[in-house]
Task: inverse folding
């Protein structure tokens, strides 16, 4: 059953420039892990911000469980790109993660501990954020996002700070999230074999280039010679 459907989304930052996204349609099924791939400037972050509802499309519709997104925004949470955060802010890991509670209501110890456990950093709860590695910081940011009682998680380039083993560990964490019923949509620059860890791949470059299983998308992109001239 699809939990999020986007139909014909078009979005321009200004009427004077070409649209960042044109007629983008996709379906995210409940309990699946989907990759969103595309080169720099393809519109990945723009699409995620539309799907989260922080920007509105110029044209097109987004529904969550059959209702317009505007009536169901609490079901969708976005983890921003790491570049959007000040990692030197003087805060502990548990302080950061607690901020993820919606409306900043007081989080219970259980919720906090569950989020830290899900991403495997309970032992770092009292550490300062600026004393962590880039990969540990990304896990802390995911734990903060998971404090949100949403069921659709949009992750904007979460693997950018990871070395290959850490990336594999992170993929396992998000796979477990999907297997426990959450819908997870992850933007990435990685067109390599790690795409095989996903149920589905959406390739974007202002329009949807291809969508389907990792193999189907790789085949489609090579048939249009996209990978050769673009990447
Ligand atoms: N605030 C903005 N104002 C004007 N144009 C913008 C703005 N944000 C993004 N753009 C433009 O929209 C297009 C899509 O940008 P976006 O950040 O969504 O791409 P992306 O695929 O996430 O890129 P990257 O992989 O580099 O993060 C780019 O041409 C970008 O320059």
Result:
């Amino acid at each position: 059953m699809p939990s999020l459907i986007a139909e014909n989304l078009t979005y321009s930052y200004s009427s004077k420039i070409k649209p960042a996204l044109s007629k983008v349609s996709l379906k995210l099924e409940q309990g699946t892990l989907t990759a969103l791939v595309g080169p720099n400037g393809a519109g990945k972050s723009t699409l995620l911000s539309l799907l989260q509802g922080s920007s509105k499309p110029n044209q097109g519709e987004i529904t969550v469980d059959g209702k317009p997104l505007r009536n169901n925004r609490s079901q969708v949470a976005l983890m921003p790109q790491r570049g959007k955060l000040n990692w030197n802010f003087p805060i502990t890991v548990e302080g950061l993660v607690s901020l993820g509670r919606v409306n900043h209501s007081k989080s219970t110890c259980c919720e906090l501990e569950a989020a830290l456990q899900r991403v495997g950093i309970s032992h770092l709860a009292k550490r300062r954020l600026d004393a962590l590695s880039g990969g540990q910081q990304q896990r802390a940011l995911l734990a903060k996002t998971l404090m949100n009682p949403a069921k659709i998680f949009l992750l904007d380039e979460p693997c950018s700070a990871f070395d290959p083993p850490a990336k594999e560990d992170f993929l396992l964490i998000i796979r477990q999230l999907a297997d426990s019923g959450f819908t997870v949509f992850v933007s990435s620059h990685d067109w390599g074999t790690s795409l095989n860890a996903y149920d589905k791949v959406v390739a974007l470059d202002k329009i949807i280039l291809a969508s389907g299983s990792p193999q189907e998308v790789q085949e489609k992109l090579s048939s249009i010679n996209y990978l050769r001239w673009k990447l």
